[in-house]
Amino acid sequence: MQRPYAHWLGVASDRAIPEDRAEVFERADALVVVVADGAGGMRGGAAASKALVDVARSVAANATLDAHEADLWVALMKEADGMLAAKMVGETTGVIVVLAPRGLVGVSVGDSEAWVVGAQSIDDLTKGQERPRLGSGRAAPVAFQRPRLGGTLIVATDGLFRYASPARIGATVREGAVASAAIRLTSLVRLPSGRFHDDVGVAVVASALQ
What we know:
By secondary structure, the protein is an alpha+beta fold. It has 5 helices and 10 strands; from the N terminus they run βββααββββββαααβ. It has one domain: PPM-type phosphatase domain (Phosphatase 2c, domain 1, 4-Layer Sandwich).
């Protein structure tokens, strides 16, 4: 049976160990997408972003949990915030998006973002998010949902959104094959020297029929 969604990932960094993470986990006919940006300049950024990815992986692998329930992800992010803060592991942003026949649900914290790029518009799924990161002890995860995926889903860290305009991001997604969109988006913020302003993590998801 053909899966309803196809996905592609891109991570770019000048560091030996990137602090940004982008992963997609398959679960029956659903996808669990997670992007995390470990706080640069702070000890443990890479460990904090990995901790959130591990949470998403564990839920995707547990068939007894309803991965399409936004309240579950909010609770898990709050739990991760408390755990990271108590252990002083580090801080990370986080966006988790679940796509299934029932629609799209997600939760975010920090300044990583999730957009749906349509033919003529961009739907910023995370525009209402709160900035305190996981591990700060003050994270306030914000949930969002849509009845369907009405375009191409872009979930990425601020290494993309801070250094490229919405118009350029939208045009980059629309003007080429969706299968290479993640690579084109990371290239969009590459400096002439070949280096990057910041780590970049990108996940791209589209209908498998697109």
